């Protein structure tokens, strides 16, 4: 598989030999021996170069031989949809992904990835977690699941459509077969979009053969980074979410075994990863909209797109009914949106 393909979200597939080697060496911790972890990300090699590799390289350097994290890209050890269970079993030690894609068995997993219109900008995600209580809610939810420790959430890119044919109205979305996230797909189906699930490695070819009409999985930075800009012609400037929400997780036993200074070091490296993505995506989205040559920009008029946002708020209320904790998260989203709207520019422009 080429390094331009990134899986679930945005992936890549390793050789069979890589997977065999990894499973042949289960985790063993000898006294005074170097601690070795295996971390698998949702991202394939091309995307992983930005969203996680710099942070892991830094960790391994500063750990000074006490610990080493072996980084694996999407599907190299286990399929992304099985990452949570594999982490619980100790097959792998840590994960970087969104809650939804790894089938996390918690009620709030629906808010991972792209929850429609919950955010406008990438800074909204850390503010919601650090200042509005989502950290405590996520920690509570995962504390009810045996064997896994939720560590930290951060933001990625917005969710836009990359399509073969131009999208200039909601009518143009009807019948379009689109590769997207489960929750995003459930929402977009209200507008006639047909969500399609395919193996990551088939997406680019599926667009070329006409099996897919487009992708709603990323912003323009990833469209260029992973190669989707090579097979689609148009980029819709409207988005259904301003930032993807993803997290770091660890096997609870492995995490508890770490000495405190290595826990602190890992937390610092997670923060450095979150920071890197903030500027890489923010700059990339603007640069490629204005300087990119592979995709033509299209837009749905603001008044028409406002009906999509109104429908999203109905969707929020439906999700709030699924559990008291989900209701609490939705209430926080509403409080936050009201504060941002009242604050006005530059926090909100509408």
From TrEMBL:
Q: Which residues form the signal peptide?
A: 1-24
Entry keywords, A to Z = Signal
Q: Record keywords: Signal included?
A: yes
Query: Which CDD domains does UniProt cross-reference here?
Result: PBP2_TRAP_DctP6_7 (cd13683)
Q: Which GO terms describe its biological process?
A: transmembrane transport
Q: Which domain of life is it from?
A: Bacteria
- Keyword Signal present in the record's keywords: the answer is yes
NCBIfam families listed in its UniProt record: TAT_signal_seq
Among PANTHER family, the record links this protein to:
EXTRACYTOPLASMIC SOLUTE RECEPTOR PROTEIN, PTHR33376
Task: Tell me the protein's name.
Answer: C4-dicarboxylate ABC transporter
């Amino acid at each position: 598989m080429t390094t331009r393909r990134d899986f679930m979200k945005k992936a890549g597939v390793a050789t069979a030999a890589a997977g065999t080697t990894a499973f042949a060496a289960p985790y063993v911790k000898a006294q005074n021996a170097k601690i070795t972890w295996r971390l698998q990300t949702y991202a394939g090699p091309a995307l992983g170069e930005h969203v996680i590799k710099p942070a892991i390289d830094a960790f391994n350097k500063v750990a000074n031989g006490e610990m080493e994290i072996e980084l694996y890209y999407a599907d190299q050890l286990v399929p992304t949809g099985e990452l949570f269970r594999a982490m619980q079993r100790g097959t792998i030690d840590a994960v970087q992904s969104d809650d939804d894609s790894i089938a996390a068995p918690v009620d709030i997993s629906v808010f991972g990835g792209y929850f429609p219109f919950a955010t406008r900008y990438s800074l909204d995600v850390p503010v919601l977690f650090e200042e509005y209580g989502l950290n405590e809610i996520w920690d509570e939810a995962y504390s009810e699941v045996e064997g896994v420790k939720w560590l930290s959430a951060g933001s990625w890119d917005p969710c836009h459509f990359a399509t073969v044919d131009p999208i200039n109205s909601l009518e143009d979305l009807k019948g379009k077969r689109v590769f997207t996230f489960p929750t995003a797909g459930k929402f977009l189906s209200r507008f006639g979009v047909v969500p399609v699930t395919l193996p990551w490695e088939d997406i680019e070819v599926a667009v070329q053969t006409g099996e897919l009409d487009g992708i709603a999985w990323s912003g323009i930075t990833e469209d260029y980074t992973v190669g989707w800009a090579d097979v689609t012609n148009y980029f819709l400037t409207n988005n259904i979410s301003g930032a993807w929400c993803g997290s770091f997780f660890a096997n609870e036993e492995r995490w508890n075994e770490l000495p405190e200074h290595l826990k602190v070091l890992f937390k610092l490296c997670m923060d450095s990863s979150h920071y890197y993505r903030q500027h890489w995506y923010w700059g990339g989205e603007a640069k490629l909209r204005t300087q990119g040559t592979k995709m033509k920009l299209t837009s749905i008029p603001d008044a028409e797109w406002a009906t999509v946002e109104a429908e999203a708020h109905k969707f929020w209320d439906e999700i709030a009914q699924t559990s008291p904790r989900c209701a609490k998260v939705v209430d926080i989203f509403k409080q936050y949106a009201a504060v941002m709207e009242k604050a006005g520019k530059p926090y909100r422009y509408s």
